[in-house]
Amino acid sequence: MTQTVTLSPLVRADGSASYTNNEYTVIAAVNGPVEVQRRDEIPEEAAIDVILRPAVGVASVRERHLESIIEKTLRQVILVSAHPRTLIQITLQVVAIPEDKNATGSLHQSASNLSLLPALLQASIFALLSTSLPMTMALTTTLIVVSPSGELLEEPSAKALREAISTHVLGFSSHGELLVAESEGAFDMHSWDQIYGKAEQLHRSRSTRDQKQTDDVNMDSLEPMSLEDSLTSVIQEKASREQRWKEG
User: Fold this and answer.
1) Which residues partner with 140 through β-bridges?
2) How far apart are CA 122 and CA 231, in angstroms?
3) Residue 166: how many CB atoms within 10 A of its CB?
4) What percent of the chain is modeled with pLDDT above 90?
5) 3-class secondary structure for the chain?
6) Contact 9, 18 (CB under 8 A)
7) Which is higher by pLDDT, 240 or 226?
């Protein structure tokens, strides 16, 4: 699983990021806090507006559904009480999606609605990190599908997504709390317990590996950078860039 993160690729946005993972590429732009229309104004906190633009065609019910999930999730991540009666707008442009040569029609129409959600959420988090907006926590997400044989697959291919009997997206905060739990397909509680256990194990193993790498960085390691590694790296890079003015 290779990941690529680029901070601030857009000049005119308050914050932006480009995120690529598992053949998905998403560019996120954040603007705000800005003035909000009175009908959308919230007296004690900021309003959040998420706009999702698909890679092909125009937005549909699928995009509206994903926008709703992202908005509810980011409301828990952003410290909205710091900017009452304002608007924070997040625009997400899907640039690339995986191709399944064996599927009939485009993957955009045939794949699960949830397969794109992790990339959208992570692009949003990285874009927020490039701004000066206060956040209460960070977020890492995992995509898991259940194959016809019952095997749990992390970050599945386009073919595995098409053949999966159920698709699940789980997101954990930097405090270890479950923030996102979205599922599609047929599954029972026993399967759900296994899926949750695998996602939690992945989150904890990444956190443990990150802690070890803080004390002893292995420059010769060929292991790909985890999502929390990327988050830590982005935060450190941003802090270093903002402190350069002190060096003269």
Assistant:
1) 172
2) 9
3) 19
4) 67
5) CCEEEEECCCCCCCEEEEEEECCEEEEEEEEEEEECCHHHCCCCCCEEEEEEECCCCCCCHHHHHHHHHHHHHHHHHECHHHCCCEEEEEEEEEEECCCCCCCCCCHHHHCCCCCCHHHHHHHHHHHHHCCCCCECCCEEEEEEEECCCCCEEECCCHHHHHHCCEEEEEEEECCCCEEEEEEEECCCHHHHHHHHHHHHHHHHHHHHHHHHHHHCCCCCCCCCCCHHHHHHHHHHHHHHHHCHHHHC
6) yes
7) 240
Lowest-confidence region among 68-72, 169-173, 228-232 = 228-232
Q: What's the chain's average pLDDT?
A: 85
The Cα–Cα gap between 183 and 201 comes to 18
> Which one, of 208, 111, 123, lies nearest residue 160 by Cα?
111
- Residues 173 and 139 sit within 8 Å (Cβ to Cβ): yes
Residues 41 and 47: beta-carbon distance below 8 Å: yes
* 94-107 pLDDT per residue, tens: 999 987 665 544 44
Under a CB-based contact definition with an 8 Å cutoff, are residues 136 and 74 in contact? no
Tokens of 171: 């997101």
Nearest to 72 by CA among 167, 179, 199, 171: 179
